[in-house]
Amino acid sequence: MEPQIQFKDSDWLRIKNDWQSWWDGKLDRPMVVLERLEPPKGITFPKGKNIPTFSDFDDSPLQFPLDMNVEEVIDHYENRLKCTRYYGDAFPKFWPNFGPGIVSGFLGARVHYSHEESTIWFDIGKKIAANEFNPKFNPDNIYWKWVKEITESAVKRWGNSVQVGFTDLGGNLDILSALIDDQDLLTGMLLNPDEITRITGRLTDVWLQYYDALYKIIQKQALGTSPWAGIFSAGKCYIIQSDMAVMIDPLMYEQFVLPDLKKCCNHFDHAVYHLDGKEQIQHLDLLLSIPNLHGIQWIPGAGNPPPEEWMDLLGRIRDAGKLCQLYVTPEGARKIKKELGCKGFAFYIWTETTHDEAQKLLDDLYS
């Protein structure tokens, strides 16, 4: 018998109800997204392995030739779904990973996939002067066509059994930096702020056009939406970001980033900001002031202590009435529960675990 994805209609009803309660602030427990690989018989794994790891399936469709039959690409990811068991608030999901900021590729940046690093890089193609840059939605771009085709094929293949996620469109300054160069962008923000404001405003409009085009495809599932992180919403949802924000102060952030974030938040039913690295903490008060920003995803960054070592920061987020999504170990989740309680948190648990260990962790965090 052909292996199947292990998720029922009743599971989807529970997921929809519980995630909505979390967004509404009515859930007294945390959301816990925990997955484990339990390969059934009859699955062919990538890279010649008998037992796969999650990293074997978390790679990008860009590893394949752009002219490859899209159904073969979807087959690759279906194996991951059939091998996964979902615990707590986890759900079957396919994320088309085309790199953080693929909109820059839609607008002319060169896109490189490194097989050695399983990483996607964006480089300036034909350099564009800021005063000549007028970004527009381009339906004929090869990378947009590939993202669109992968998303459409995934929705058609899995219907209402798997949530098809949004690719990582990126933040407006991040996209712009891949098109006109980091140094030119920073110089322009200092010497020609009106021009950069014009461009970033236009980029936000184009960004929303790409989002809505994907949403039109994804909503055919009648499930909901999910960004690249393991969160679910019955409405329009996204994780917004600005990685370039580590290079600017709060005054520049307020001028060049905040208008974009507010416009996007007003467009979504649920929005979370990707706070990546301690350098971005200086912008937290501005973020917490956005009424329609529902939550903060805290990523301490490489070389920094894990999320559970930032209790003051987590407390600030929760005291401001915002939700908080974290990638933590079981021990980290338990520590946060002990010191801050769990209401308003969503834990994505990174661990190799047995079935009994997974159930014990859920019991500990839900009680």
Summarize this structure as a short list of keywords or feature phrases.
alpha/beta; 14% strand; 367 residues; two-stranded parallel sheet; 13 helices
Gyration radius from CA atoms, angstroms: 20 Å
Number of strands: 11
User: Percentage of helical residues?
Assistant: 40-55%
Within the largest sheet, what's the order of strands? Answer: 2-1-11-10-9-8-7
Distance between the termini: 38 Å
Helix vs. strand class? alpha/beta
Would you kindly provide a brief summary of this structure?
The chain has 367 residues and is α/β, with parallel strands linked by helices. It has helices spanning 9-23, 70-83, 103-106, 142-158, 172-180, 182-191, 193-218, 250-256, 258-267, 284-288, 311-319, 330-340, 355-366; strands at residues 31-37, 84-88, 93-94, 110-114, 119-123, 163-164, 237-240, 270-276, 295-299, 323-328, 345-349. Helix 12 (330-340) links the parallel strand 10 and strand 11 (345-349).
Description:
The longest helix is centred in the middle third of the chain and has 26 residues, at 193-218. The protein is globular and about 60 Å long. The two termini are 38 Å apart. With 367 residues, the chain is of the alpha/beta class. The strands form 3 sheets. Strands 2-1-11-10-9-8-7 form a 7-stranded mixed sheet, sandwiched between helices. Helices cover 41% and strands 14% of the residues.
Topology, pairings included?
Elements: H1 9-23, E1 31-37, H2 70-83, E2 84-88, E3 93-94, H3 103-106, E4 110-114, E5 119-123, H4 142-158, E6 163-164, H5 172-180, H6 182-191, H7 193-218, E7 237-240, H8 250-256, H9 258-267, E8 270-276, H10 284-288, E9 295-299, H11 311-319, E10 323-328, H12 330-340, E11 345-349, H13 355-366
Parallel strand pairs: 1-11, 3-6, 7-8, 8-9, 9-10, 10-11
Antiparallel strand pairs: 1-2, 4-5
Helix pairs in contact: 2-4, 5-6, 5-7, 6-7, 7-9
